[in-house]
Design a protein that fits this description.
Elements: E1 37-38, E2 42-46, E3 56-60, H1 72-88
Antiparallel strand pairs: 1-2, 2-3
Bound molecules: zinc ion.
Zinc ion is lined by residues 9, 24-25, 27-28, 63.
């Protein structure tokens, strides 16, 4: 049951022994005008403090803590987006 205990954001809900687990973050609710690219599983957003032209963030649509929590489909979507963003800048 992979979805048991998972909230709408895709993150496990806080348990009594983990009261401060995050269930959402700014990347889960980005301002639409800021979205550079979007695909089924990922979004590309401008970095708030860019250090190079085109410095961007690629985030999964589902709230997870790291790339390694992403499903193979989500990882593939993020890598496809990375390649597309690389071509743009
Ligand atoms: Zn999030």
């Amino acid at each position: 049951m992979p979805n048991e205990g998972v909230d709408g954001c895709g993150r496990f809900s806080p348990s009594p022994v983990e009261p401060i687990a995050m269930t959402s973050c700014p990347f889960c609710t980005p301002d639409d005008p800021k979205i550079i690219l979007a695909n089924e599983h990922a979004l590309a957003l401008p970095d708030a403090f860019p250090v190079t032209p085109g410095h961007s963030l690629i985030a999964p649509r589902r709230h997870i803590a790291s790339f390694f929590e992403a499903t193979p489909e989500e990882q593939s979507a993020m890598l496809d987006m990375l390649a597309e963003m690389r071509q743009r800048f």
